[in-house]
């Protein structure tokens, strides 16, 4: 009797040549629908020196993919009527009163009054005028308590009049997280754990990976352009050791570590209109606000509230090139986890995420008796 042939794997067939030509060292790709994980596989090496293979449960610094998670938690308070998206930030953080705006790029000292106080909707959509990061912050992003970091944001002038332009800003999302703390009286990181991560079963999503999780973190690689090869580097935006809770502080705009499976649970909750396994986390109205373009015509790229939006999809990428995408039309989720600092190893890297988005929509859905999301 002839042996059954294994089904073809177009995702692995696409990625393997990129491993072979050193575009990337390794990655984890996951495809899901509303209820099931349809595909998850690690490929290449978690660490090139030891040739440790990339496991499907490898940990990654997800960087700005943290932003939609922070914003989703924040929207719980909007749902509860504790905050309005059109409230001025200064209602909750008085240090933002009387903000000034840089009137001329060539003269940082030429300041004028803001036309209106920056609003919560603006800090979540990168249209507030807040810079990317404060000049008062140290080189790493995790060295200041959130309260101190946000106070330094308020002390600096805005880049432009609120609502008139788009400028991607870690400060905006971090400021929203500080408002969450003030309104609830709960530390931001605890709120995230109790209201989002723990109930969703995101057991590997954390600002402080423990020793067993650190052992699963994918090594970060950067292209050495002179040598034409990938070399290992530390995550320069963070401080080490990563499990140091005394000197490292949570960074809401980009500090989380996670796995593909954990990110998928979060995405499934969003795709299911704010519910997961029978529990409601946020309203459908909140999801509509987050995934609807909020930056008008101020920028070519669409941005909602904490989410990048385009062509019926919502998602976000991170500094080290990981990405998550929810196709709201087809009901497919793509999570691509990689740890690449700077340019890809070859020019082929720029097409990876868009190609995987296409391939994700071609993955066969599980039969009715298929495995539930885990």
**SS elements, strand count:** 16
Sheet with the most strands, sense and barrel status: 7 strands, antiparallel
Beta-strand portion reads: 15-25%
Indicate the overall shape.
globular
- Our measurement of the CA-to-CA distance between the termini, rounded to an integer number of angstroms, reads 36 Å
Q: Which architecture of the largest domain would the CATH scheme give at its second level?
A: 3-Layer(aba) Sandwich
Structural class per helix/strand content?
alpha+beta
CATH level-3 fold name of the largest domain: Beta-lactamase
How would you portray this structure in words?
- The protein has 374 residues and is α+β, with helices and mostly antiparallel strands.
- The chain has two domains: 10-71 and 189-360, DD-peptidase/beta-lactamase superfamily (Beta-lactamase); 82-184, Methane Monooxygenase Hydroxylase, Chain G, domain 1 (Up-down Bundle), CATH 1.20.58.710.
- Helix content is 26%, strand content 19%.
- The strands form five sheets. The chain has a seven-stranded antiparallel beta sheet with strand order 3-2-1-15-14-13-12, sandwiched between helices. It has a three-stranded mixed beta sheet with strand order 8-7-16, with no helix packed on it.
- Helix 2 (66-79) packs across helix 9 (284-290) and helix 4 crosses helix 5.
- The protein is globular.
- The protein starts with 9 loop residues before the first helix and ends in a 14-residue tail after the last helix.
